[in-house]
Amino acid sequence: MQILARLCMSADGYVTTPNGWPPQVVDPAHVPGESHGIPEFLQSCEAALMGRTTFEPALGNDRWPWPDLKVFVLGSHRPAGTPDDVTLDDDPVRLLEAVRSANRGGDVHLIGGPRTIDTFVGLGALDQLELVVLPFFVGAGMRLTDSLDPDTGLSFERSRSLPGGSVELVYSVSSDGGVPLARQAGWSPLSQGRRQD
Ligand SMILES: NC(=O)c1ccc[n+]([C@@H]2O[C@H](COP(=O)([O-])OP(=O)(O)OC[C@H]3O[C@@H](n4cnc5c(N)ncnc54)[C@H](OP(=O)(O)O)[C@@H]3O)[C@@H](O)[C@H]2O)c1
Hints:
The protein is of the alpha/beta class. The chain is about 15% helix and about 25% strand.
């Protein structure tokens, strides 16, 4: 079992619109469950893991977004209408244990949002990050997560173009990942260097 985070991100770096929707929902190419490479991604997945804020809007959807996945939610209360077979817990360590003990060998789609990804990155549970960069700006919203800075150890694995102009970027999470030179103190163009006088 691997835990795979996959999020859509606007070209200006936001994983939500200014009003809190995932940015892919305003993409003309968006078809729920079909676009942005999601069917291929889900082929290896048997479970979905997400925070309560991300989970709750699905309860009002016409279409249940995770028909073939066992659903696990991190949250302190069970929203009205939550199906009985959804596992909800307010303790991320306990929830991770429940995910692992239910697992039959498939992968887990860590859907988000940023707070929940932070939590599982903090537990060292993330194996892979996939970003789908959308071909438009939204101007404001939530950014991915402070935990996913270069020190997290993201190693680029592959990319591909998707219909509608999006680009999928796949990173593994490993201790030797990252681009340390980009953050090295004092490594800057001479034109931006401090004067020595
Ligand atoms: N771009 C994408 O592909 C994508 C994907 C998913 C989500 N999103 C967006 O992300 C936004 C939501 O992100 P978010 O970060 O605000 O919320 P979130 O991670 O979906 O859920 C946050 C909730 O999860 C619980 N939680 C998180 N960390 C916890 C911890 N360490 N211990 C205990 N409980 C914890 C808490 O639930 P309680 O409040 O019940 O205690 C918390 O309020 C939405 O706007 C959604 O549209 C975007």
